[in-house]
Amino acid sequence: MTYENFIQLLRNPGSIEESHQSALRELTEKYPYFGVSRWMYLKSLHASNSVYYSSELRKTELYGANRRNLFFFIHPEEIGKGAANAKDRASMSGSYFDMIDIIENKDENMR
User: pTM, whole model, 2 decimals?
Assistant: First the structure.
């Protein structure tokens, strides 16, 4: 894989397909801590419905910093579906008191 081909795939990840799999695998094996190549290799495995997808997903999760971004990279069609949950998450700071409010609201809704 040439530098230009890699940059082209990087700019347009939707064009990653099964034919790129061997080159991306070689790149990942040569540079195991190069996360972008791992993500792209995983996307090529997903595109081809490979049996190696689940085992490579576990490895890529370990090397990656953000699993949420990885999910949306692999499944770009899911981006719009998570928008409602993002608003709820943005209004919370993640504190103990936010969790109590959520639990109390669920209890009120169940009554």
Answer: 0.69
